[in-house]
Amino acid sequence: MQLNPFQILLVVILSGLRAADFYSTQAFTYQHAFWCWLTGIVLGDPMAGLVVGGTIQLMSMGALGLGGASAPDYGMAGMVATVLAVTSGNSSDFSVGLAVGVAVAMLYVQLDLIFKIYNSWVFSVIRGFAAKRDYPNMLRSFYLSHLYLFMQGALPMLLVLLFGQQAVDAVLAVMPAWFTAGLNVAAGILPVTGFAMLLTFMPFNKFWYFAVAGYVCAAYLNLPVLPIALIGMVIAICYFKLHTEGVAGAGVAAAITDGGELEDE
Amino acid sequence: MSNGFFKPADISPTDFKEPIPQPLPDGSYAPVLTKEDLDICSRRMCLMDTVSYAYATQNAPCATYAAFYALRKIYGGDEDAFNRAILNQLDCVFNATPPVSGLLLGAGLAIEDTGHEAGQQAENDLKIGLMGPISGIGDVFIWILPLTILGSIAGYMAMDGNPVGILLWIALWAVMYVWRMQNYNQGYNAGVQIITTMADKLAVLTDAASILGLMVVGSLIFSTVAIHTPLTFTFGEVTLPIQEGVIDLIFPNIMGIAVTAIVYRLIKKGVSLSWIILGIIIVSCACAAFGILG
Question: A68 and B58 in contact by Cβ < 8 A?
């Protein structure tokens, strides 16, 4: 599919805004599916944006840059994958776009490092103006970081839009069938990395049986994710009440449950 | 932007024409910050968050940018004291989950509002001492849980071509955003003690919320990880597909669970995510080539 200049401009701006928002305003941080959806809408294929975005969202689950750590940039990965899925004209098979996107995300771990080193220079500029008591310029220099982030998102996206499809086509032409088949299989398995990473952040060893309960609800009862979240909410509220209303409350609740079981027998 | 949303209309960053604040008999100062001043701090923090993150001072510049006009008001016409206060903010290492850091920075400003320069050491100690605990809570409630629950609902629905989950996330995030646009006030009013004791009460809430998160993750590992084997058993005349005929009848998608368990162990052992992803792609290609997976 051929893109018109207006679409290219919009996607480049969108990519820059996403990168800037990720660190500065944090209004849509980690909402990769949202950004991919927007990209899809601009490119005239919202469905491709949703499907690619959803996949990336689930893959990225545990990839959080907490406490100043650098994490793979799945937002960029998602937007690149969306662009490639739409321009290839075959948005149902996006495994190649996804692979390119994941490679981009890995590359961005290094760019994140460079950004934080660049910020050391920004800090020296800010502090320099502060020491000279030039406050208007000091306040302006903060936006050097925003500018850099915008460029970090926008410029690579421009390259992808202009040359990405040719590059992917060239790779596809020489790629053996087993590799494309393998990428399709990998696309199904890769969400695992997100879930596994996420479990390391959560008290999994303490509460692993609730994960089993969630599995049972989905696998055997065929419930969609929203009702499962609501059941989880009910259990969470009960847990919270039992632990905040003291030991006496917990004892009474246990006695009531025991009594109920006896009557049933 | 002189409309009073990001900066007060009546304070200029250049001319210091206000009177120099005078201490009360006990050495402290009469507090001057109003709700509106603190709201401006919260909104200015929304522009910055963690954008100035550098390894040496981390988010200290963001905190300075947010507090600029509050400090300007505290020190009035005393330009020298104001300059020392700005440099103190810039040099005091600070890093907390941005949407909740206003609680801590607001409490810090409360100290500086009454103590002026004499309060700066206590303010710095408060910020450095509590930025870890408040981030521990903030990371769970701002990033990990919303990403688990809202992110997985949004991602799962989006894979089916349904944007409702994304819209739900945006709507709930907007509620959080409205809250954080005033959270310097909460920190300022709560003061130091409440911020410190809050951590204990929130531990139970964190556990409860983790239960909800784990149920969602448990269900999503089943419904989003797709591993399929085309292998079949053949007993003479009878052909039995392993996936549909055996595995799915006993433990649906048990292979997805098994792979998750393996990757979880690898991450716990410190294997980097990049190697794991590369490994998955290599194993997938090998299994696809030999017809084990597909």
Answer: yes
Based on the fold, state whether residues A108 and A97 are members of the same structural domain: yes
Q: How many domains does chain A have?
A: 2
- A32, A78: one domain: yes
Token pair of A262, please? Answer: 């006896």
CB nearest to A211's CB, from B139, B214, B223: B214
**pLDDT tens track for B25-42:** 888 888 899 999 999 999
**Of A161, A183, A202, which residue sits at a domain end?**
A202
Residues A214 and A179 in one domain: no
> Which pLDDT belongs to residue A63?
65
The secondary element (H helix, E strand) that includes residue B232 is: strand B232-235
A95 Cβ neighbours under 8 A, 6+ residues apart: A180, A183, A184, A186, A187
Q: What is the tens place of the pLDDT at every residue in B193-213?
A: 665 566 556 677 778 878 888
Q: Domain range for residue A187?
A: 5-202
What pLDDT score was predicted for residue A256?
Answer: 44
Question: Would the CB atoms of A123 and B211 count as touching at under 8 Å?
Answer: no
**Chain-chain contact of B281 with A182 (C-beta, under 8 angstroms):** yes
A218 lies in the same domain as A114 = no
Give CA–CA dist B208/B138, Å, rounded.
Answer: 15
Structure confidence at residue A66 (pLDDT): 64
Model-level pTM? 0.78
Chain B residue with the nearest C-alpha to that of A226 = B153
Q: How far is A102 from chain B (nearest CA, A)?
A: 9
Query: Which of the residues in chain B have pLDDT under 50?
Result: 1-2
Q: What are phi and psi of B229, to 5 degrees?
A: -110, 130
Query: Taking the mean position of all CA atoms in its chain, how far away is CA B118?
Result: 32
**Residue numbers in chain A where pLDDT is lower than 50:** 248-265
A207 in the same domain as A168: no
Contacts of A64 in chain B (CB under 8 A): 139, 143-144, 147
ipTM over 0.90: no
The residues near A147 (Cβ < 8 Å, ≥ 6 apart) are none
In terms of domains, do A47 and A89 share one? yes
- Chain B hits for A66, Cβ within 8 Å: 97, 135, 139, 143
CB contact under 8 A, B61 and A131: no
Same domain, yes or no: A93 and A142: yes
**Contact call for B284 and A186, based on CB within 8 A:** yes
- Does residue A260 share a domain with residue A159? no
- pLDDT for A250 equals 45
